Structure prediction request, 627 residues.
Amino acid sequence: MGFDLLNMGSQGLMTAQRQLNTTSHNINNVNTEGYSRQSVVQQANDPIWWGGNQYGTGVHAAEVRRGFDQFATNELNLTTTNLSYATEREGQLGRLDNMLANSAKKIPEDMNQWYDSVKALADSPSDMGSRKVVLEKAKMVASGLNDNHGILSRQKSETNEVLSRTLSRVNDIARELVDVHKALVKTPASGHDNDLLDRHQSLINELSEYTKVTVTRKNAESFNVMIGSGHTLVSGTESSELRMVSGKPDPQQTQLAIVEGNSLKTIRNDDIGGKMAALFQFRDETLTHAMDEIGRIAIGFSESVNELQQQGLDLKGQVGQNMFRDVNDPASAAARVMLPADSTAEMKVFIDDLSKVKIGEYGLTFDGSQHTLTFPDGTSQNVIPSGNPPSFTMDGFQVEMTAPMKAGEQVVLRPTRSAAGEISVAMSDPAKIAAQSYLSSASNTQGQADFNITQPGTLSEFQVAVSPDASQFAVLDMKGNILQAPQPYPPAGEVVVGGTGFTLSQGAIGGDVFAVNLNAADGDNGNLIKMQTLQAEKLMDEGRSTVIDVYQGLNTEMGVQKASAARLREVGLVEKDAAESRVAEISGVNLDEEAANMMRFQQAYMASSRIMTVANETFDTLLNVSR
Prediction:
């Protein structure tokens, strides 16, 4: 009896000691990040039957249990991912909004200064000093657009660097998780290494900042860790590797991929979640959108000025030349097409109609018989190139195919992406500013046709009249006498009369008259007055916006997106705080509770010690009686 009593006392003592040790461990780690409270689960020993009755045999510590709830932890992981995405998104948009509010605000300021210089020149069209000022202001516009394109390009490169570092850390976490899993495998099957499991959860928590994470049990000792919508990063003691691979057809538009064994599988950038999703969205959507819009502003400004230059006479009586680099020069037109590395196709994109030009990226595929154009919004349409070389027109631009695409080939068309980086002043002689309009006040036009002199000749004054039904046109002298018999409207190409060539586009209405005077007139400022009207002329968005309106729209849109991201971060912060509170209720260490446990287990320890004392005294009594 004394032996059984001693045995039960020692078991109670050991159990209380383990409870005291675990409580001390909790108290020591109260400030350890990621630590989960531990508790000893004690169970009664199996009873014995003796004399027809059941007698208890004491207690033992069954396990040290970790305070953990999978559902609460999953919720914390998800809210961590959402908050990380929103925080990164807000920071990126904040930096871009500051750029647009500071350096990019110079774009409309520089344009307005150019318009002001044109107004000053209109007061004295022959003044060389005023003409030089116009060219200097034009260089400021071009330089400002170049600078902003460069800033956006650098932000894109910096984002790629951050993505590379983030990817490296994710791969490190994957390898660390494998090490934890290997250590767990070495843990005796009957026990659990709670501190290792805490380390495992800390790594998962960090991983959740970078991407959406799903954790499932593979077996008793290890887990499967999946990212995004189900891409396996860690499976037990094996890990995959994330990489950045060259984009197709643009190798600079890198894409996320995962190496699983010997296979390489690309992952959709919008399928990953967390900080990485925000980085990809900023690089592939926000920055490209800003670059496209800044490029559209550059095209709208330079092309509208160049068109008016070609509609006037310079100080020497010559038809005006481009003030800015031609947006449709061969190099610029070819740069708007991204071809695969092994492609033999030759293509160019020419800006055809400013009012219809849209931003974004177009995809063109060829299946061997049919060309399909995919629009920036994801819709698609079959196109049929015609002519020699084959070409087609869409959304204000014309695609010309000098060499055909191969079957199965895909190319990317970017009508405005690089324009802000390419704009430059092509004119160096201020005398070539076309101040005088060769369309005299006798003109009467109500339509939208473009009339341009291509080469001056001996015929310096004439009229081009469109028939009342707009089916024909005729060339007349200033008295109404016919110089060239009526021909079908619009003309197929250049029309030459008396050595003077001109072109006339579609868009005229019946009765339009274009009166031409190529005689140089000192002090004439008719074309400069037209240039001034560009400031308020709604050339963009199908007649709804001025060039400066496009910039203001971009600035407003970025501000709205920033405010939206800030609200999303605030919501994410509240949700994460709530999830952390739920986890803390289960896993957190409460010092008051641990202090109470310490006293309770200390009393149990002392009581078990007393049992052992009683057992010892009983045993001594029995020995003395036997003597």
